Amino acid sequence: xxxxxxxxxxxxxxxxxxxxxxxxxxxxxxxxxxxxxxxxxxxxxxxxxxxxxxxxxxxxxxxxxxxxxxxxxxxxxxxxxxxxxxxxxxxxxxxxxxxxxxxxxxxxxx
Length: 110
Fold this sequence. Notes:
By secondary structure, the protein is an all-alpha fold. 82% of the residues lie in helices and 0% in strands.
């Protein structure tokens, strides 16, 4: 397999993970995207689209600690395109919604 073929396979696998998130197949999405997220964390790569998709799957599966960790990583990343800026804003919305739900849930238990 050539270097180009390996890169294409890498990109295809990541796209598959994004598709799984859009189809709300969240456990599969996490499994598919996790190696890419870990690689980016180790290399210091800032791939906003990857981290946002991963965090959406995390929040949908109830992995709130994982979501918060990924959210924090995205917050410090610099958006390079309008799409990345929109993705960051979308993630901010999910974070705010989560905090409101947690606040309401703790208020109801009192």
